[in-house]
Amino acid sequence: MTVPVFTPSFLKDLDRLFVWRRDVRHFHSSPVPDTVLNALLYETCLAPSVGLSEPWRFVLIKTPERKEAMKQNFIESNARDLEGRCGEEAKHYATLKLSGMDEAPHHIAVFCDINPTQGRGLGRASMPETTTWSAVMAIHTFWLAATARGIGVGWVSILDPELACRTLSIEPNWRFLAYLCVGYPQKSACTPELERLGWERRNPNRRKWIYR
Ligand SMILES: Cc1cc2nc3c(=O)[nH]c(=O)nc-3n(C[C@H](O)[C@H](O)[C@H](O)COP(=O)(O)O)c2cc1C
């Protein structure tokens, strides 16, 4: 295979991909074709992983009862989060749409096999949590690959993870990491929704590094 040369125009597009990747909560109901979704998941598996353990596990939720139970899980977890807030902040929080579970045509739960045989334990003896980080790398790969194809992804973490595992009949050594809503976005934006709604701002100079 020829080693690729990434042209300045590709790098410009890549930068735009990073800038325009959004957490999406507003979806069209039309589904993403299976071939496209499968290609996306296939590409996602190129993510790096500790010891080449590939510990990510994607679960595509098909049964309406399970989707409904996950929605209920979100509603209850979100209500608990709201209860813990007061005053203006609580009012503001209550106005935020923090999941696109109602409209998104695809629900994908992501797990990490916390003790995979693949990789033979390389790289995780002193830092076992590196399997989890590897699976999160795959989520980010999925997110970017989806955005590049005009497909939106919304990460929902306002959930009770143990209840999620029970709802989805998941085996004990899989750790729940994320619930992804996937579909075609209703709108595009180059800034986070939470910023546009005044909840939080991206650090304008993006300086999150120090020197030692
Ligand atoms: C680990 C993780 C968990 C998140 N959980 C939620 C969530 O439960 N609900 C939500 O609306 N957004 C969630 N988000 C999306 C963030 O709010 C979003 O990434 C952030 O506001 C920046 O916006 P952007 O992704 O559009 O750049 C989550 C993102 C990450 C990385």
List the helices and strands in order.
HHEHHEHEHEH
Number of domains: 1
Determine Rg (CA atoms, Å).
Answer: 19 Å
CATH class value: Alpha Beta
Strand content: 5-15%
Overall mean pLDDT score? 97
SS element count, helices? 7
Trace the largest sheet across and list its strands.
1-2-4-3
- Name the CATH homologous superfamily: NADH Oxidase
Secondary structural class: alpha+beta
3D shape: globular
Which kinds of small molecule does this entry bind, naming each only once?
Answer: flavin mononucleotide
At a glance:
This protein is an alpha+beta fold and 212 residues long. The chain contains seven helices and four strands, in the order ααβααβαβαβα. The N and C termini lie far apart (40 Å).
Features:
globular, 212 residues, alpha+beta, 39% helix, single chain, binds flavin mononucleotide, 7 helices
Structure description:
The chain has a single domain, classed as NADH Oxidase (3-Layer(aba) Sandwich), CATH 3.40.109. Helix 2 packs across helix 5. The protein is α+β, with helices and mostly antiparallel strands and 212 residues long. The termini are far apart. The mean pLDDT is 97. The chain is 39% helix and 14% strand. The radius of gyration is 19 Å and the shape is globular. It has a 4-stranded antiparallel beta sheet, sandwiched between helices. Bound molecules: flavin mononucleotide (FMN). Flavin mononucleotide (FMN) binds next to strand 3.
Topology of helices and strands:
Blueprint: H1 8-20, H2 34-44, E1 56-61, H3 64-83, H4 87-95, E2 106-113, H5 130-148, E3 152-156, H6 161-167, E4 174-183, H7 193-196
Antiparallel strand pairs: 1-2, 2-4, 3-4
The protein binds flavin mononucleotide.
The site of flavin mononucleotide has 11 residues, from β3.
